[in-house]
Amino acid sequence: MTPRRPKPPTQAGNRQLLEAVAVLLHKANSALFITGPGLSHDSGLSNYRGISGLRRKKPEDDKIFEAALSAEMIKRKPELTWKYLLRMEEQVKAAQPNRAHEVLVKLERQIARTTIMTINIDRLHQRAGSHNVIEMHGAMFDLLCSSCELSTHHENFDALDIPPKCKTCGTVLRPDMPLFGEALPVDPFTRLQQELDLGFDIVFAIGCPTMFPYLARPILLARAAGLPAVEIGETRSEVSDVVDFRFKATTDSVMGAIWDIYTTLGPRDLPTTTRAE
Predict the structure, then answer these.
(1) Which domain holds residue 170?
(2) Most buried residue, 36, 59, 78, 150, by CB count within 10 Å?
């Protein structure tokens, strides 16, 4: 799938804002990046309500998607749920990390502590090379046996019988992520709180057109502490009037521009802690 051509951040005064953010990043020892479907969209990946690989074409599609990708349906008619999961997988496999993903990997190697908090389930961050990623909604390629409560990782679904079944008990496997109508998992929130307790020097929201309360909270905490907050995306969100820097453009173009300026600022002290590459 061919990614969309980036729209350059050309608003008046944006160069100065980009420079200011790049300088803040260059000085930062810790950074939190909150990412959403807008980031994957810039890789050419369609999203329906944050579900990678689904594009709403007809008014009735929303009810069909939500019914098919529900916990009730995978119990009653798993073949129907897996029909849509395979459609999602086809798009996700075809998508490639974009420049914003790549810049986040580079920043992870420059800044002592960086954390990505994402609601995307496509694992494009990991494919790009990021390591410290908190998946708030899980991932579609981790499959769970709801009976054995065991989760297994898969790169794709190519080698699986469809619908796949647990080798131990025969229960139909499901993605280890919340389906429609289910609560979000607890573990990512615990891990996020641990990171927030350590604190961050700067917080970004990247490609998040809807800032759910748990996404907005780190932004609001940063503002309350007098720390810089940055939003990047083509549409306004619930935190657009709160952040210090707001860029209305594609995520890959803005992150690419910030990195280009960052590299002109000269060497910085090596991180006290580095991630494995």
Answers:
(1) 47-94+141-176
(2) 36
